[in-house]
Automatic annotation (TrEMBL):
It is an enzyme of class 2 (transferase). It catalyses: N-acetyl-L-glutamate + ATP = N-acetyl-L-glutamyl 5-phosphate + ADP. It is found in: Cytoplasm. InterPro entries: AcgluKinase_fam, ArgB, Asp/Glu/Uridylate_kinase. Its EC number is 2.7.2.8. One of its GO terms (molecular function) is acetylglutamate kinase activity. Substrate binds at residues 40-41, 62, 155. Pathway: Amino-acid biosynthesis; L-arginine biosynthesis; N(2)-acetyl-L-ornithine from L-glutamate: step 2/4. This is Acetylglutamate kinase.
Length: 249
């Protein structure tokens, strides 16, 4: 059965519109499975500021001390995930929240503990957990937190987590939602872009800032076997599409 993975932002109202749920229903009605991975950086920053905990970003990654990790867990699992899950339920979908402690769902390792603290990268996805949820006709709402084999929790970039989940599920499509309609060049939104073109766009500094981790996550997914990746601001719009057919081996 075809699976579509969608990474949404933590601010549910930005992505979870009537049009969003119309598209999800259309997918479900045609027999497709839908998996949601969510972020939550806005709310984490808001809570850290409220608690007077310094916020430090290093190359797009949030430096995560033990204190910051506790806030991240609290916000993502205690606030953002339930909020998103409840909106899905309001629109008539059966949804259930999943995170790292659900039978080692997302396994990971530290990227650079000395420099970044409890920030990790995915080493393995327990896809069986997700497949069991999908088989019960639930939509999994996944928090991008991981866990090391020693039991340490990790803060993982949501785009990177979504790409690894899509790869593990052999997903047909991955949507990485952002606040712009895609990748822009010469005042034009690109309908598609190849890996070769991506390299040039990065060298020309057309792809910069927050778009870099999204593009890198997209490439990870494509080379991992995902059929198609969309960089877009809505699942009802194709945005900029990257496909494996364009990879030259």
């Amino acid at each position: 059965m075809e699976t579509i993975v969608v990474k949404i932002g933590g601010v549910a109202s930005d992505n979870l519109t009537k049009d969003f749920f119309k598209q999800v229903k259309k997918w479900k009605d045609t027999g497709k499975q839908v998996v949601i991975v969510h972020g939550g950086g806005y709310y984490i920053t808001e809570m850290m500021n409220r608690l007077n905990i310094p916020v430090t970003i290093d190359n797009g990654l949030r430096v995560t001390t033990k204190q910051a990790l506790k806030v991240t867990q609290m916000v993502l699992i205690g606030q953002v995930q339930p909020a998103i899950t409840s909106v899905f339920q309001q629109y008539g979908f059966s949804a259930i929240g999943l995170h790292a402690s659900c039978n080692d769902l997302i396994q990971g390792e530290f990227i650079d503990q000395e420099k970044l603290g409890y920030v990790g990268e995915v080493t393995k996805i327990n896809s069986q957990v997700i497949e069991d949820v999908l088989a019960s006709n639930y939509i999994p709402i996944i928090t991008p937190l991981g866990m090391t084999i020693e039991g340490d929790w990790l803060n993982i970039n949501a785009d990177a987590a979504a790409s690894k989940i899509a790869e593990a599920l052999n997903a047909e499509e991955l949507y990485l939602l952002t606040d712009v309609p895609g990748v822009k060049k010469d005042d034009q939104w690109l309908p598609k872009v190849s890996p070769k073109e991506i390299k040039v766009l990065k060298e020309e500094e057309i792809i910069i800032g927050g778009m870099i981790p999204k593009i890198e996550s997209a490439m990870t997914a494509i080379f991992g076997g995902v059929g198609k990746v969309h960089i877009t601001n809505g699942i009802q719009r194709a945005g900029t599409v990257i496909t494996k057919e364009e990879i030259l081996v």
